[in-house]
Amino acid sequence: MPELPAPPVAKKVPAERTVHGDTVVDHYAWLKDRDDPDTVAYLEAENAYTEAASAHTKALQAEIFDEIKSRTLETDLSVPVRHHGWWYYTRTLEGSQYPIHCRSRTEPALPADPAEDIVSPADEQVLLDQNELAGDSPYFALGTFDVSPDGRLLAYSTDYDGGEKYTLRFKDLETGAALPDEVPGTYYGSAWTTDNGALFYTTVDAAMRPYRVWRHLLGTEAAADVVVHEETDERFFAGVGLTRSEQYVVIELGSQITSETWVLPAGDPHGEFRVVQPREQGVEYSVDHTGDHFYIVHNSDAVDFELVVAPAGSPGRENWRPVLPHELGVRVTGVDAFAGHLVVSMRRDGRTELHVLPLADGAVAAPGRDIEFAEPVRTVRPGSNPEFDTTVFRLGYASLTTPGSVYDYDIAGGELTLRKRQPVLGGVDLDAYESVREWATAADGTRIPISLVKRRDTPRDGSAPCVLYGYGAYEASMDPWFSIARLSLLDRGYVFAIAHVRGGGELGRRWYEDGKLLRKRNTFTDFVACGEHLVSAGWTAHDQLAGRGGSAGGLLIGAVANLTESTFATLVGEVPFVDALNTILDPTMPLTVVEWEEWGNPVDSAEVYAYMKSYSPTENVEARAYPAILATAGLNDPRVGYHEPAKWVARLRATATGDRPLLLKTEMGAGHGGPSGRYDAWRDEAFTLAFIIDTTAPRS
């Protein structure tokens, strides 16, 4: 590692915090004020330092970017999706950052060979070209993309700074003309009415919580829009959508552990929404519709959830009848209802599964069957299935060694047809890679699954470097996925591993509950146990092991940095939630109140305050040597404020000893997801991989 230039030094402005009799002096609280010129100056100085400190990896970054680019089919076509007589698909063009949304009456042909040219149907209609919408903006994101039931209108929304507040617009797809309707400040989710004359959408409050559902009548001013629901409980998010049957507009209200659903016949836009089942603390449920029934997945007296059916006219819990009764250890995660069948998503033995149930007159007509796959370490989930009356189910499949694949499953015959597998160009032999499942043992005896992938010729003698990825929050599962960019690590002799730590949902609801609130530290100690297992089992060595995680997974990385001095050589925290206690103490901060059911409420509870203080990364930086650290941020991030990684790095610089690099890289025009264009995202990933390689270089 070359000698680094002098890093920036953040000024210290003492700010006292006294909670539950505990007084803490925070010298970097001023970084929350993005309007302070010193804040932007500090972030820019850190960016300049990171640029200088990583200058020696420029050639490696360029090499990795070229590898990603050369292995990716840049001009490509998605598998067309049938809906109401149209085939919908997206195209990407070499040199363009964003996809183009199209449709045609004739099904586009998917080339059998990636080298073949893509021939668009003669009747192709371009619905939306994201490249044209993005223009010269350094950031662009599409929110809503919603075609009306009659196929004549398109509702879409755009964001140009990463702040996740979108402007909603409408397009006449028959004439190509933009309609005058324009609604600023909208959020995710939308639902058309049957007559195509109204659209429901959501907006957020000052804390970035979606709390209002609105009705917009086409041809009217946004000022005339009507609030059809306002959620006053600050723990709850509001979302809106349309059932696949297009019979009901659905408002879903949910906190971390409680939910409630309201429905309205889509043909009655001015009607009153009615509740399916009134909310009960700790009870979650979701709803889909077919025929005269609602199919409901819930956890009332069913820790891993079960599937029930209820009459659409009287769907309350007193009328719920079991379809798939609760089975401990089999986590039912959702149901997709169609005219003639149901597809139930579930988790069993740490794996994702799909279970098909045939229907007759809206009722389950025969025993169900699983859709079978050969690879034991893989991910399968529902694909795009907008058509309600169909005999084919579209699903997505991937593993650590199998690129993202689209299959059609024949409901009657049970056959799987591969429609497309993500091409990997450049002569890559996918048979050269192998994946395995290992288990680490936590300090309390709990076995923690680890998914690994490497080249078959990479030795298992402790000499290979390794990247261990983790998340562990919100019951989100880090199921195995394929990555073209990851090949640049594997081909350099790296092992890549995913630690399926508690706090995620890999092993059911209890796996999640054992990694949240006052058991949150299990997430961090599980990750360390996985790292130690990789070393003791000969997969890698301590001085070549990197840990990586983002957002809540960045909290994991920050906590691990304080928890162990020797397990990891390098840590990468992407938009990391590392000032967790200060954020969760401030109800005015975006999303704080809704997070109390995940982390606890340190405002009211001294126990929660003390527990969070014991692991919150910025609170626990010590005067000792730390691994090499890269932290990233987005100035416009509405989920994890840019100031969190900025404060973390500032305190590390002022406190830590040792000579390992501590870098902060802030996207000054983006949000939580980083750069928006695909080429920019590849460059960003190449930078991160180069940092990892530079700080965990394989032994010669």
From TrEMBL:
Family per UniProt?
Belongs to the peptidase S9A family.
Asked whether the keyword Protein transport is assigned, the reply is no
State the protein's name. S9 family peptidase
- Indicate the segments forming the Peptidase S9 prolyl oligopeptidase catalytic domain, all copies: 481-694
Name the GO terms of the biological process aspect. proteolysis
The molecular function GO annotations come to:
serine-type endopeptidase activity
Query: Which PANTHER family does UniProt cross-reference here?
Result: PROLYL ENDOPEPTIDASE-LIKE, PROTEASE FAMILY S9A OLIGOPEPTIDASE
